[in-house]
Amino acid sequence: MTDFIPYFAGIITILFGVAFSYALTDGWDFKKDKKK
């Protein structure tokens, strides 16, 4: 189980990076007058 933890942390980090980049480009509009 201890050997699996770094891989799990890497997968979580990649998922958060993809979600954050999606949020900045196409996703939620923090400023209401962005694109949509």
Describe this structure in words.
The chain has 36 residues and is mostly helical. Helix content is 58%, strand content 0%. It has one helix at 5-25. It is rod-shaped. The chain crosses the membrane at residues 6-25. Keywords: Membrane, Transmembrane, Transmembrane helix.
How would you describe this structure in keywords?
mainly alpha; 36 residues; 0% strand; rod-shaped; 1 helix
Number of strands: 0
What's the overall geometry? rod-shaped
Structural class: mainly alpha
What's the main sheet like?
none
| Measured distance between first and last alpha carbons | 45 Å
The helix-strand sequence is H
Summarize the amount of helix as a percent range.
55-70%
Average pLDDT reading: 79
Rounded to the nearest angstrom, the radius of gyration is 15 Å
Q: What layout of secondary structure does this protein have?
A:
Elements lengths: L4 H21 L11
Summarize this, please?
With 36 residues, the chain is mostly helical.
